[in-house]
């Protein structure tokens, strides 16, 4: 029985170690992964909870804007589709230059679709949003 317990512990440690070696994309759908962080920030924006939304921003973003109020003003003016998104879904993910990029389809309050690419970084506190930019709809030829 004791040997069986040791085998179970060893197996659990092995699984944990292998998961740490997996690339970020393979771990991206974790409960605390990039998709969850983006969804939680969108929920915070919708609830007008900019203090909570601020916690999902990377140290770089927090350094650029300096305060929650400045960050909130930027979101309201520059990303109104994110401020009160009606819906969102994740449509693509890729790793480039050591960052994870998550493409998100956002439906704004009027029903218009927008595509945004979120640059995600891993910090000691977990995944954080390091940048957001508008992109063309994936798969459309230009």
Features:
142 residues; four-stranded antiparallel sheet
Structural notes for this entry:
There is one protein chain. The chain is of the alpha+beta class. The chain has a single domain, classed as Nuclear Transport Factor 2, Chain: A, CATH 3.10.450. The protein has seven helices and four strands, in the order H-H-H-H-H-H-H-E-E-E-E. The protein has helices spanning about 1-20, 25, 35-45, 50-55, 60-65, 70-80, 80-85; strands spanning about 85-95, 100-105, 115-125, 125-135. A four-stranded antiparallel β-sheet has the order 1-2-3-4. The relative contact order is 0.14. Mean pLDDT is about 85; it is low at about 5-30.
Q: Topology as H/E string?
A: HHHHHHHEEEE
Strand order of the largest sheet: 1-2-3-4
* Major sheet size, sense and barrel closure: 4 strands, antiparallel
CATH architecture: Roll
Annotation, overall tally of beta strands: 4
CATH topology: Nuclear Transport Factor 2, Chain: A
Strand content bin: 25-35%
Question: Quick recap of the structure?
Answer:
The chain is of the alpha+beta class and 142 residues long. The chain has helices spanning 2-21, 24-27, 34-46, 50-54, 59-65, 68-78, 80-83; strands at residues 87-96, 99-107, 113-123, 126-135.
Question: Which helices and strands occur, and which strands form pairs?
Answer:
Elements: H1 2-21, H2 24-27, H3 34-46, H4 50-54, H5 59-65, H6 68-78, H7 80-83, E1 87-96, E2 99-107, E3 113-123, E4 126-135
Antiparallel strand pairs: 1-2, 2-3, 3-4
């Amino acid at each position: 029985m004791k040997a069986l317990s040791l085998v179970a512990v060893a197996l659990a440690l092995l699984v944990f170690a292998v998961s740490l070696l997996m690339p970020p994309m393979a771990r991206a759908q974790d409960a605390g992964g990039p998709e969850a962080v983006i969804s939680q920030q969108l929920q915070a924006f919708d609830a007008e909870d900019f203090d909570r939304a601020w916690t999902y921003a990377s140290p770089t973003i927090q350094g650029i804007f300096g305060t929650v109020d400045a960050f909130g003003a930027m979101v309201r003016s520059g990303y109104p589709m994110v401020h009160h998104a009606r819906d969102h879904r994740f449509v693509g993910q890729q790793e480039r230059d050591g960052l994870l990029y998550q493409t998100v389809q956002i439906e704004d309050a009027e029903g218009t679709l927008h595509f945004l690419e979120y640059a995600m970084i891993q910090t000691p506190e977990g995944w954080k949003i390091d940048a957001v930019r508008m992109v063309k709809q994936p798969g459309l030829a230009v």
